[in-house]
Structure formats: C-alpha cells, structure tokens
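Example record for the data management plan.
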Amino acid sequence: MDKNSSGWLHGFIGVLIFSGSLPATRLAVLDFDPLFLTVARASIAGLLALGLLLLLAQPRPTAAQWRSLLVVALGVVLGFPLLTALALREMSAAHSIVFLGLLPLSTAAFGVWRGGERPRPVFWVFSLLGSLLVVGFALSQGLSLAPRGDALMLLAILVCGLGYAEGARLSRSLGGWQMICWALVLALPLMLALTWWRLPVSWSGIGLPAWLGLAYVSLFSMLIGFVFWYRGLAQGGIARVGQLQLLQPLFGLALAAGLLGEAVSPAMLVVTVAVILCVAGARRFGR
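Corresponding structural encoding:
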C-alpha cells in the first residue's frame, strides 16, 4: 500500500472511532458533570500515554515541539472535549453530530495556515459545499432551539481544526502516536488536579451507561483514535484526508439512533448523504 492510500485508510479508521465520541459523551453527561468528564477522560488517557512513552523509552520533544504540543493539548485534549460536553447539555447528540460536518473545512483552513498545504481550487468547492449543507441544515432546524449549544459546537469545531492541523504537522517529525501521547502528558498535571477538584460528591447515582461513556471517550476518543487519525493526516495530507470527517455524521447518527434511541429525521439523512458525496468529490478532484 502506498503512502497516500495508507493515509486514507488510517484516517478512515480514526473517523470510525471518533464517530462514537459524541453519543458516548451524551451518555456520560447524563450523570457526570461536563468539566469532570473532560478532565477525567484526559487524565485516564494521559496516564496510559505516560506508561507507553516510558515503556518504549521515547525521546523527549524539543523546545519547539513542546510549543506545538501545547497548541494540540489546548485544542483536542481540553478545548474540544469540554466545549462539546457543555454543548451536549443543551442539545441532542444527533443535532450536535451535524456540526461535525464543519470540521473538514476548519481542518483544511488550518492545514493551509499551519501545514503549508495548497489544495487545488476545486477542492475548496467541495469542502465549502459540504460545510454549507451542514450550516443550512442547522439554520433550517432553528438555532433558537439551542443557541448556546450551537455556539459552543461552532467554537469546538474551530479549536479542534487547529489542534488537528498542528498535530498532523508535528506528527511528521515526532511520530503520530508519540505526538498525541506527549500532548496528553503535557496536559496531565493540570488534568489530574482538576479531576481531583471536580470529583463527584457521591458515586451512587452514576449509572452503567455513564461509566461506559467515560470509558469509551477516555480510551478510544482520547488516545486510540488519535493514533490512527494523526498518522492518516500526516501521510495523506491534512486538507485532503481531513475531508473524511464528513463521513463522521453518518456513523454518529446511526449510533445516536441505535444506542440512544434519538430520532434521526429524513433531513438529517439527506444532509449526511450529500456531504458524503462532497467527500468523494474532494478525494477525486482535489489532488
């Protein structure tokens, strides 16, 4: 398998894993405080990452790499998980998943800025079309239904796109799994302190679904998914492989319906299919 195909394969696996993040978060915030959930998942993943780095005796990053790791940590370790957890207090997982259709455009834009990539103009046509479909759907549903939640999701998309692009750029020199592990370790002292501070007063009211949600977002969303995702971005290109995120709403909506019993409207499915076609167009003509 050539490097480009390997990048798309790793990126696709990463998207599959991330597709369960918002439904799992929705389950977790039913019983856990959003801030506790954010810092607890980062603490659990950070401890696992520290163990891996020590076990495999990985060299420490340089000073310049530490600065980039700080951007990654603020974007994907703290920013996106916290903002989405807060948003899911205001809206359903199905509604929030639609906003993920904006992630490819955000990632591509930051890939141009931070990664020095220059996609062809036709690529931006498909990327913008997919994003407009998502925004149009959100507007058609009425933002007054959850204006705060919508604003939080949009901000989450911005910080996540920056974290993805910066992490992919850094992965080229540091390595994909090493990069996310070091970013988690960088955030670990603060995350552990905040986890201790936000410990629930009582654990008795926390159900099994919330615990399963915490386990998923800690192990898969916070660590394993990033190993595949950053390798895919580094190998296949930040902007182009980033378009695979347009597939995430489809998988996420299916999980929201199957696991949470949430209603998935025909309009949601139409928008999802349309953005999948935009991914195919970006893949075919954006080279």
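Summary line stored alongside the record: The chain has a mean pLDDT of 84.
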